[in-house]
Amino acid sequence: MDSKALKTILKIGETVAVEFKRCGNGIESDTYESVCSFLNRFGGDIFMGVLNNGTVNGVPPKAAPDMVKNFITVISNPALFTPTIYLSPEILEYEGHTIIHVHVPPSAEVHSYKKVIYDRVNDADVKVTATTQIAQMYIRKQSIFTERKIYPYAAIDDLRTDLLPRIRQMAVNHAGGSHPWENMTDEELLRSAGLYGRDVATGESGYNLAAILLLGKDEVIQNVCPAYETDALVRKVNVDRYDDREIVRTNLIESFDLLMDFIKKHLPDKFFLEDENRVSLRNIIAREIVSNTLMHREYTSSYAAKLVIKKDQMYTENASRAAGNGFITPENLEPNPKNPLIASFFRNIGRADRLGSGVHKLFKYTKFYSGKDPVFEDGDVFRIVVPLDNDYSFDMGIGPETKRETNQETKRETNRRDFLEVNMAKTLAIITEEPSITQSELKDKLQISLMSVKRLMKALQDNGMIERIGSNRKGYWKITKKEGHSTP
C-alpha cells in the first residue's frame, strides 16, 4: 500500500471495511475480534499503530517484527480461531511512524475467536449470540442459491397448475404475441423455467424451492417455509398498530397481485404525462417495489418480510443474502441476483425487467411522484424506502379531481411558478452550450416530461427570452434576453 492511498484511508476514517488499532504495548484482543468480524462479513483492512480518529502514533519499530509473528501465531491457533486463517501482515513506514497493515479477505466460512462469533456492523465489531443471527450468517456464506434446493418427494399435484394457462398468456402478451411456453405441456414449461431439475451433488431430482414458492399450494409452501409471509400494513393514523393489514402467505404469482392491490388501495394515483401519454406513477412504483421484495428475498430465513405504508413513506423489509453493506444508488449499483430462477420467471411474464432496472426506475419515478429520491439499503435485511407526499404534484396545476378544491389552487400555482423559475434558468444554461438541442434531448437532461419541456419553451418564448432560428428540424435556439424576465 502506498502512502497516498493510506493518507486517503486515514482521512476517511473507520468504516465497515476499515479498522484502526492503537497497539501501543502490543496487539490487544480486540484486534483479533476485528479480524473475526471482517472474515464473517465483507473483509477489510486493519491498521495497527493508528488511533480511532485516524491519528498515526505508530508501533515501536523494533517490536513490529515480533508483533507480526505473534499475530500469525494467534490466528493459526485452533484453540483461539475456529477455523484458523492465514494472513500476511505488512510493516509500513508513514511520516516517520511504523504501522502494521493487515488485509482480511471475506471468508466462505463462519469464524469464531475464543468461541465467540463476531460480525461487522458499520464501524463496530459486534458479538453474535442469537441463533437466528448465526443462521443468517451461514446463509450468507452459502455458495449455492437456496431457491435451487430439490424436494424429491414434491409432485406436480403439490403445485397450482390451474395458474399455468394464465401464466402462458402473460408470457405471450409480454413477448409481443409469441412465446415458447405457449405450446408446451405443464411439465415442459416447468422444466423450461428451471423449476424441475437434478442436484448434481446429491443425485436427487425433483421440483425445487423456486417451483414451490412460485406455484405451490398454500399448505405446501407453509410446510417447506413455515416462516414465509409478507405482512402488509398501513400506519397513517394508528401508527403503533395499524389502520389496515393483510398477511400474504400464498404463492408468489398471487402474492404479487395481492400486494399490488393493497398499494393501489392506499396510495393516490397522481396525474402524470410522459411523452404526452398518461402513465400511472403509483403502479410503476408499486410494481418495482413488490417485484423486488418477492424476487430478491432469502426465503430460508425466519425474518418476516414487511410492506408498510405511512403518511410520509412506504417501505419494504426482507431477509437477504447480502453481497455488500450500505446504500445503493444508480451510480454504485452492481446487480446481484438473489434468486435468479424466480427473477427469470418474473421477467418472462412481464413482472420484472432486466436485473438492476428496478433501482433506476424507482429513482426516476419516485422523484416524479413525491419530489424525493428513494433509499435502497443493502445488508442481511434489505430495505427500500419510497418517500410519500400526497400534496406534491410534478405536473404543476394538474392533479386528481380530489385535489381541485380552491385552497389547493393557490398552492399549485405557486408550485408551477417555482417549477418554471428553476427550470428556465437550467434551460437557458443548456441552450447556451447546445443551441441546436432538441426538446426530446432537453427532456432527458432536465429529467422532466416532454409536455413540461414544451410548456417551458413556450414560457421562454412568450417572455421574449429565446427565439427559434430556422426550421424545427434543422434550426437552433437563440437567446435574446437572460435577465429581467417575469415568470408567466
Describe the structure.
- There is one protein chain.
- The protein is α+β, with helices and mostly antiparallel strands and about 500 residues long.
- Helices cover about 35% and strands about 20% of the residues.
- The protein has 15 helices and 22 strands.
- The protein has helices spanning about 5-10, 30-40, 65-75, 130-140, 165-175, 185-190, 210-215, 220-225, 250-265, 280-295, 340-350, 355-370, 405-435, 440-445, 450-460, and strands spanning about 20, 45-50, 80, 90-95, 95-105, 110-115, 115-120, 125-130, 150, 195-200, 205-210, 230-235, 245-250, 275, 275-280, 305-310, 315-320, 325-330, 375-380, 380-385, 465-470, 475-480.
- Strands 13-12-16-17-20-19-18 form a seven-stranded mixed beta sheet. A four-stranded mixed beta sheet has the order 1-2-5-4, with helices on one face. A four-stranded antiparallel beta sheet has the order 3-6-7-8.
- The longest helix is centred in the last third of the chain and has 28 residues, at about 405-435.
- The chain starts with a helix and ends in a 9-residue tail after the last strand.
- The model is unreliable at about 395-405 and about 485 (pLDDT under 50).
